[in-house]
Amino acid sequence: MINRRKSKEISIGNVKIGNNTPISVQSMCNTDTRNIKSTLKQINEMAECGCELVRLAVLNKDAADAIKDITKKSPVPLIADIHFDYRLAIQCINNGINALRLNPGNIGKRENVEKVVKLAKQQNIPIRIGVNAGSLEKDLQEKDIPLSEKMVLSALGHIKILEDLNFDLIKVSLKSSDVLTTIEAYRSIAEKIPYPLHLGVTEAGTLKSGLIKSAVGLGTLLAEGIGDTIRVSLTENPIEEVTTGFEILKSLGLRQKGVNFISCPTCGRTQIDLISLAKKVEDKFKNLDKPITIATMGCAVNGPGEAKHADFGIAGGINEGYVFKKGEIVARVPEDQLLEKLEEIIIKSSK
After folding, report:
1. Regarding beta strands 293-297 and 99-101, do their DSSP bridges make them parallel or antiparallel, or are they unpaired?
2. pTM of the model
3. Are β-strands 170-175 and 10-12 bridged in parallel, bridged antiparallel, or unpaired?
4. Which of 121, 283, 297, 310 could make an S-S bridge to 315, C-beta 3.0–4.6 Å?
5. Do 170 and 199 meet the contact criterion of CB atoms below 8 Å apart?
6. What are phi and psi of 247, to 5 degrees?
7. Any bridge partners for residue 198, and if so which?
8. Using CA atoms, how far apart are residues 280 and 275, in angstroms rounded to an integer?
9. 268-to-87, 92, 225, 274, 299 alpha-carbon distances in Å
């Protein structure tokens, strides 16, 4: 069992974060926030896949205006991503946003920071300090120290601004496109602050490379008990970020939402189109919100035994296959009836 790092509990809308609450999966809309219809459509699509928090880019006053209608209809809490203009943060709070992502040191005079923090405190709106390795303060960029240390110093500086204003509804992220830098930064900050941490490897890349970088970076930190919310940053449909996030958490036993799919690599004993079959199984049961494990195995010789820890599974034969439950074969059917029979047995067992 993984021993989670203890952190202060905060709430974003109805989602509790920190203090050993479930690690939440977050993503970000890639729509124009000013387009209320398309933005809500994407929020709903992500929510249907289990996404628990959604961040929106707020580039200008029109986008902040749109927040009012979007928050009224969103099925999940929303976070406004603000850069430089404190007025947008105030506008978003007044329009019902659930949290902010900003760096207080980047939004101008102290009096402007105070205005945002005062309103956020009155309405219990958390602020995520989001440090990005590619946009550090100039004085930190010039320091002759490792990049991860520069990121930590940046975060501590922004945190101090909020703490000096007696504000502690804080969440922190320190993201780099370099996996090791990201890991080092989070390990360091985790020992220095009591606040919950939002994990991510920024600019991770397209689906394949981004998934690998995120799995290594986030997986390493999560296995060490570090992290309270996560976002898998991919140059892809945000739904891929959500499903990947849950898969990472499931692989570590940190969340059990939905089905855990396992399948064996193909070998010379395989007498069935295993690759195609495994994909069909995942597609068939991807929306089944039950904490069960389903296995797709290549042969009946070793399949059921090797996957006996799975709740249900199928194993291929020559033009036929076997459905098994906890390692015991319960049905033998033609290949084209495997999925139907598997579904029948799962439904029957769930009653």
Report:
1. unpaired
2. 0.88
3. unpaired
4. 297
5. no
6. -65, -40
7. 229
8. 9
9. 64, 59, 40, 12, 10
- 2 alpha carbon, distance to own chain's centre: 18
pLDDT in tens, 112-143: 989 999 999 999 999 999 998 888 888 888 89
Half-sphere exposure of 107 (CA within 13 A, CB side): 26
| Model pLDDT, residue 119 | 96
Contacts of 191 (CB under 8 A, 6+ apart): none
Cβ-contact 274, 266 below 8 angstroms: yes
Which token pair is 216?
Answer: 């290594």
Average pLDDT on 81-85 reads: 90
Residue 281 CA to residue 266 CA, distance in Å, equals 16
Spell out the domains of the chain, with CATH numbers in brackets: 10-251 (3.20.20.20), 260-350 (3.30.413.10)
202-254 pLDDT, tens per residue?
887 788 899 999 999 999 999 999 999 999 999 989 999 999 999 999 999 99
Which of 171, 238, 173, 159 minimizes the C-alpha distance to 202? 173
Question: Rounded distance, CA 269 to CA 279, Å?
Answer: 19
Torsion of CA 182, 183, 184, 189, to 10 degrees: 90
Q: What is the pLDDT of residue 64?
A: 97
Q: Crossing angle of helices 86-94/61-73, nearest 10°?
A: 30
User: What single-letter amino acid sits at 259?
Assistant: V
**Start-end of H helices in the chain:** 36-48, 61-73, 86-94, 110-122, 138-141, 147-164, 179-190, 207-223, 238-251, 274-285, 303-306, 338-350
What whole-number distance in Å separates Cα of residue 24 and Cα of residue 121? 23
Whether residue 300 has pLDDT greater than 80: no
CA quadruple 219, 221, 225, 228: dihedral sign: negative
Yes or no: say if 350 and 312 are a contact pair by the CB < 8 Å rule: no
Residue 195 CB-density burial (10 A; 0-12 exposed, 13-18 middle, 19+ buried): buried
Structure tokens at 291: 């904490």
CA distances from 16 to 86, 126, 169, 228, 251 (A): 26, 11, 12, 10, 22
CA-nearest of 275, 281, 233, 241 to 261 is: 281
